[in-house]
Design goal:
The structure holds two protein chains of two kinds. By secondary structure, chain A is mainly alpha-helical. Chain A has one domain: ABC transporter involved in vitamin B12 uptake, BtuC, CATH 1.10.3470. Chain A is built from twelve helices and no strands. The chains are: A mainly alpha, B alpha/beta.
């Protein structure tokens, strides 16, 4: 009799354990598909709300143009976020790079060389933050704020006597949707492989989890920090080219709201803001898509962009609230 | 004495889940007046979880708690303290940016306030008085906590618990981190509580210590109460099988007493000096297939020597040479490239990444080795990690599980796995069994011995003398940054002999 009781008890225990495992698995799945779900829900919602106008081809092209620069930027910025580095200088460096590209292109230098120069200038400015972070133990957040101001200052000065125009007609082919899609696919695949299938990406994810442990495990952390900033600079160079071709003027407006949008996209994509083990490469890109869809859809529905900001803010909170992992068994951190 | 049997705190059918992990399963427990109840069990058996629920740190998932017969549901630690339940925690539980007085009276500033203004002078006087009472005049109430060392911070915590004068005091594995000064303070505190007919719950891995201070022992295993010992039955011999669930061989160190290893030198440490000059002109040679033990008191410099050999701390003079290749080791990357591994004493901060998976942690030092044409395939990662999980019998759901969900012993297994996966030939282990329960400890000793038999060379820095004597082929005893003795393995090596060389 006792034995029987014991057996039933064990059975219920097993059931409880199985249920708990299921719940944890469900939460994991939820966290990983939430960004996709969010994007789909947004699209469906806006299709319904705008009576189908949202997926008309003109709007899709507009949508591509709107989110393109951010997506390109993201393919590189993800590496910084994997390290857990919040960078405030990305936007301003992008303006800076656009300025260089514009000035050189106007001097009839081949476009490819102009873009390379833009990348090099980005590397130079981003390296300031990298040196601060890797060598001087200054928080990259603080250092990047300084870089932001320096770059913005230079770009403002260059625009003081007259706007720096990029002659639109000279490179209009760069505005073709198919060019953009090809560039995006190449950048994404390159970034994805680098992030998931090389020791560079894996080292950076480890460093985001714990810089100290990564270092003690033999990872060359200084080198990796520089590589992350260089990868990000390459993305900045490409993004700035397309931004200036589309906007026509190389001024500070190119990078004005980039920093904040990048951060929102990172969180919306389910990417841990302070780096670490759970980082997924595609997350922030989905996030960037969502931010753009939201902005675009709201303006189509006739709401001022001011409301868009408010909604973005609320969405930010909700997503962080749902995905943030509270089940820490630790009492005092 | 008529209320001598009054139950101070009891609980019935407590369950606690952390995600899919069941930390406590239908635990019932009671503590009576005048009892010093030791809570034992392997890492991850649920001891800390149970006590933290009592102390108001976190709520239980289900079940009821009674405080002197009345339902008890504390919302916070302060709440629990008001009901007379205070806790000294395992990890450091003080705030580094506040001064000593503010830490002692945290949560209880009202008594020093006039209107809305806090009277700092009054608070510091009160704090100094408490510190004087417990006999630690060298800690001043206006010192910022961060300026104190680990041990003194712990003593501030003890002072806080004493000031609160709780009816129930919970001490969670605090003595592991303490040297004699702090330990005797805790014993004094326990003694006081017992004499005042109050209750103490004491968590510790040190079985001799438990035997000394406890009058009752409750044992947990995998979140379930598995046994209880009273009075004279409380002996290490009775406690061990309770914890592990099976009989352990009396001697779980290695069984051979021949300390011979090959004469082939694999690492030559030649006159190294630390940056602060504490360790000067230190030389030692490590042989192939040797377990070289380092012993000494806290502050003897043995940990620093380990860190310097690995390239983690800088050295200002001398050479560390990998033999027979004659390769100099100057930084961590040199060491890793030469197949040297290092397991830190500070596991959670220096050995493993807590918010990364077992897989990520295991392959961290082998990333460059598992590359094929510059790429790392997920399958290679999984293979390498699964092999280690199996070899070490790490208890986990899968390789994808995050390390912060593992128990202390299993975390240490992951830390070992990282270097075994990397195929290290020389392993520097700083306190490899610190804070690990007996079952895992035995497995670790077996593993270390097995590595030795495979011809790997091991530097084992240890604070535990039995472990040092039981495992090492050769022991280097350090004092004040210098070698004070070198002792070969032998049946007749006594710990008193080692202690003499340390002090």
């Amino acid at each position: 009799m006792d034995n029987l009781q014991q057996n039933t008890k064990v059975l219920t225990e097993d059931k409880i354990q199985a249920e708990l495992n299921r719940r944890a698995a469900r939460k994991d799945i939820l966290t990983s598909i939430l960004p996709y779900m969010g994007a789909v829900i947004l699209v469906v919602f806006f299709i319904a709300a705008t009576g189908g106008k949202f997926i008309q081809s003109e709007n899709l092209i507009l949508l591509l143009n709107q989110c393109f620069n951010m997506l390109i930027l993201m393919t590189g910025a993800v590496f910084l976020y994997a390290l857990g580095f919040l960078d405030m200088g990305v936007g301003a460096v992008m303006s800076m790079s656009a300025l260089i590209i514009t000035l050189m292109y106007r001097a009839d230098i081949p476009l490819l060389i102009c873009v390379l120069a833009g990348m090099l200038v980005s590397v130079a400015f981003m390296s300031i933050t990298a040196v601060a972070a890797a060598k001087l133990q200054i928080s990259p957040f603080i250092a990047s704020l300084c870089v932001m101001n320096v770059c913005d200052g230079i770009v403002l000065m260059a625009n003081k006597t007259g706007k720096q125009f990029f002659a639109y007609s000279k490179a209009s082919w760069l505005n073709e949707p198919w060019i953009k899609i090809i560039v995006l696919i190449i950048m994404f695949i390159a970034g994805y492989i680098l992030f998931n299938y090389t020791h560079i990406g894996k080292s950076m994810i480890s460093m985001g989890g714990s810089m100290k442990v990564a270092k003690i495990s033999g990872i060359n952390t200084t080198k990796m920090i520089f590589i992350a900033y260089i990868i990000c600079s390459v993305a900045i160079g490409v993004a700035s080219l397309f931004a200036v071709v589309r906007g026509g003027i190389a001024d500070t407006s190119i990078g004005s709201s980039v920093n904040l949008n990048v951060m929102i996209a990172v969180v919306l994509g389910g990417f841990p803001l302070f780096g670490g083990g759970k980082a997924r490469y595609q997350g922030p890109l989905i996030g960037a898509l969502m931010v753009t869809i939201l902005t675009n859809g709201l303006s189509m529905m006739g709401y001022a962009s001011a409301l868009g900001y408010a909604i973005k803010g609320i969405l930010f909170l909700v997503v962080v609230g749902i995905t943030y992992d509270r089940s820490k068994g630790k009492l005092i951190d | 004495m008529e209320n001598g049997n009054e139950v101070l705190i009891s609980c019935r059918d407590i369950c606690k889940n952390f995600g899919p992990t069941r930390a406590l399963i239908n635990v019932s427990f009671e503590l009576k007046r005048g009892e010093v109840c030791g809570l034992i069990g392997e890492n991850g058996s649920g001891k800390s979880t149970l006590t933290s629920i009592f102390a108001g740190v976190q709520p239980q998932t289900s079940g009821e708690i009674f405080r002197q017969g009345k339902p008890y549901k504390p919302n916070s630690m302060t709440d629990a303290q008001k009901s007379g339940v205070a806790m000294i925690v395992q990890e450091i539980g003080t705030l580094p940016t506040l001064d000593v007085a503010k830490n002692i009276f945290i949560g209880n500033y009202e008594q020093f306030s006039k209107g809305r203004v806090l009277n700092n002078r009054l608070m510091h006087e009160a704090a100094d008085k408490i510190l004087h009472e417990i006999g630690v005049d060298d800690i001043k109430s206006n010192t910022i906590l961060a300026a104190l060392n680990f041990e003194d911070r712990k003593i501030v915590e003890i002072a806080r618990a004493m000031y609160l004068q709780p009816e129930i005091l919970i001490i969670d594995e605090s003595t592991t981190a303490l040297a004699q000064k702090g330990r005797s303070l805790i014993y004094k505190l326990i003694d006081q509580m017992e004499k005042a007919d109050k209750g103490v719950i004491f968590i510790s891995h040190d079985l001799e210590e438990l035997q000394k201070v406890c009058n009752r022992i409750v044992c947990l295993r995998d979140g379930v109460v598995v046994g209880e010992l009273n009075g004279a039955d409380i002996t290490p011999k009775n406690m061990r099988p309770l914890m592990v669930g099976r009989e352990l061989a009396e001697n779980f160190y290695r069984n051979d007493w021949s300390g011979c290893s090959s004469d082939e030198v694999v690492l030559n440490v030649d006159h190294i000096t630390s940056e602060d000059g504490f360790v000067q002109n230190f030389s030692v040679q490590l042989h192939k297939g040797e377990i070289l033990g380092f012993g000494g008191l806290a502050g003897s410099g043995m940990h620093e020597v380990g860190r310097m050999i690995y390239g983690l701390d800088r050295k200002v003079t001398g050479n560390i040479t990998l033999m027979p290749k004659n390769k100099k080791i100057n930084c961590i990357q040199d060491a890793v490239r030469s197949d040297i591994g290092y397991i830190s004493k500070d596991r959670d901060n220096e050995s493993i990444i807590l918010n990364a998976s077992i897989e990520q942690n295991t392959v961290m030092a082998s990333l460059k080795k598992i590359r094929k044409h510059g790429l790392i395939s997920p399958r290679a990662v999984k293979q390498l990690s699964d092999k280690q999980i199996q070899a070490m019998s790490t208890k986990c759901v899968s390789g994808k599980q995050l390390c912060n969900q593992l128990s202390g012993g299993n975390k240490q297994k992951v830390a070992f796995s990282k270097w075994l996966a990397a195929g290290s030939d020389i392993l520097i282990m700083d306190c490899p069994t610190r804070g690990i329960d007996i079952g895992v400890k035995a497995a670790m000793y077996k593993l270390i011995y097995q590595l030795r038999q495979e011809g790997k060379s091991i530097v084992m820095i240890s604070e535990e003398l039995p472990e040092l004597i039981g495992m090492s082929d050769r022991m280097i005893i350090m004092k004040d940054g210098k070698i004070s003795a070198e002792i070969m393995r032998g049946r007749d090596v006594k710990d008193t002999q080692l202690i003499e060389c340390m002090v």
